[in-house]
């Protein structure tokens, strides 16, 4: 990489320790912006006072106020829903709450909702129809199109080849609206279903136009880490591949929660980008 022009941000579950200890989400976002992290994914379960109830329902009215306080931040909303298996529909109450929250946070941009399916396992995928899963994604995408928005799907416990086939089938069904359905690409999540030696080839194969954002986290001994030290993924090389392939979407850090989250983020950014940039990168100097 010849420069440090990534749009950097993070996923709010990085702040779970701080939120659980009573630190307001507003002050955490303020600190993130001060450090040059201006793409924020608001993840269900890590919204502090901006979500309610046992299922952590995002509160659209309050989130609209939050977005107005941070006009320089690019927000999206993220939910955990069984969007690839089961019978989830566009009338699901949590999905509708997420869509409303994404609309409230848009601030003149396209509302952006990201879903991850943590329930549908590999064996269920193999027993499920690719076309039925694709129809489900089309229905959810059309619900976002109605509000001029977009839907992103993050891969998790689903085999990559199966998920890739589902996304392709859904895009074919969407036709000219296919750009409204995109991938939240998380190379670390590939290790849930793929061999480590296959990750680099998958990263090389993913089409930039089909990706809305990139999640960045490190794994060691099967566990997501609170830092970006040595681990199962060679992140500087993966980022170089993504850069060379023309990926321009936000890069969102998703380290495991930790009391020293800011120090870990700062050292992580320096490790991930510093060696590949023309001069050392520091969070406060990153151009967005």
Walk me through this protein's architecture.
With 288 residues, the chain is α/β, with parallel strands linked by helices. It has a single domain (8-285), classed as TIM Barrel (Alpha-Beta Barrel). Helix content is 36%, strand content 17%. The chain contains ten helices and twelve strands.
Topology:
Elements: E1 8-11, H1 16-20, H2 25-34, E2 39-43, E3 51-52, E4 57-58, H3 60-69, E5 74-80, H4 93-105, E6 112-116, H5 122-126, H6 130-145, E7 150-154, H7 160-174, E8 181-185, H8 199-205, E9 211-216, E10 219-220, E11 223-224, H9 235-244, E12 251-253, H10 261-273
Parallel strand pairs: 1-2, 1-12, 2-5, 5-6, 6-7, 7-8, 8-9, 9-12
Antiparallel strand pairs: 3-4, 10-11
């Amino acid at each position: 990489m010849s420069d440090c022009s990534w749009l950097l941000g993070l996923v709010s579950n990085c702040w779970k320790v701080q939120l659980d200890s009573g630190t307001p989400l507003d002050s955490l976002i303020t600190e993130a912006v001060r450090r040059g992290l201006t793409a924020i994914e608001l993840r269900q379960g890590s919204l502090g006072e901006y979500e309610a109830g046992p299922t952590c329902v995002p509160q659209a009215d309050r989130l609209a106020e939050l977005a107005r306080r941070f006009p320089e931040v690019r927000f999206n909303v993220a939910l955990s829903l069984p969007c690839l298996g089961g019978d989830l529909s566009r009338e699901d109450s949590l999905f509708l709450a997420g869509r409303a929250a994404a609309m409230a946070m848009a601030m003149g941009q396209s509302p952006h909702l990201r879903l991850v399916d943590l329930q549908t396992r590999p064996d269920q995928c193999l027993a499920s129809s690719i076309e039925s899963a694709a129809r489900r994604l089309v229905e959810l995408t059309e619900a976002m199109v109605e509000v001029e928005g977009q839907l992103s799907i993050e891969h998790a416990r689903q085999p990559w080849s199966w998920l890739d086939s589902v996304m392709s089938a859904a895009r074919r069904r969407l036709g000219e609206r296919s750009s409204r359905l995109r991938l939240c690409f998380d190379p670390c999540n590939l290790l849930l279903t793929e061999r480590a030696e296959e990750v680099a080839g998958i990263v090389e194969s993913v089409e930039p136009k089909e990706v809305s954002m990139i999640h960045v986290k490190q794994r060691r001994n099967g566990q997501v880490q609170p830092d970006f030290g040595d681990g199962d993924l060679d992140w500087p090389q993966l980022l170089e591949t993504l850069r060379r392939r023309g990926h321009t979407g936000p890069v969102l850090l998703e380290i495991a929660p930790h009391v020293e989250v800011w120090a870990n983020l700062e050292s992580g950014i320096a490790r991930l980008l510093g060696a590949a940039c023309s001069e050392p990168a520091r969070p406060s100097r990153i151009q967005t």
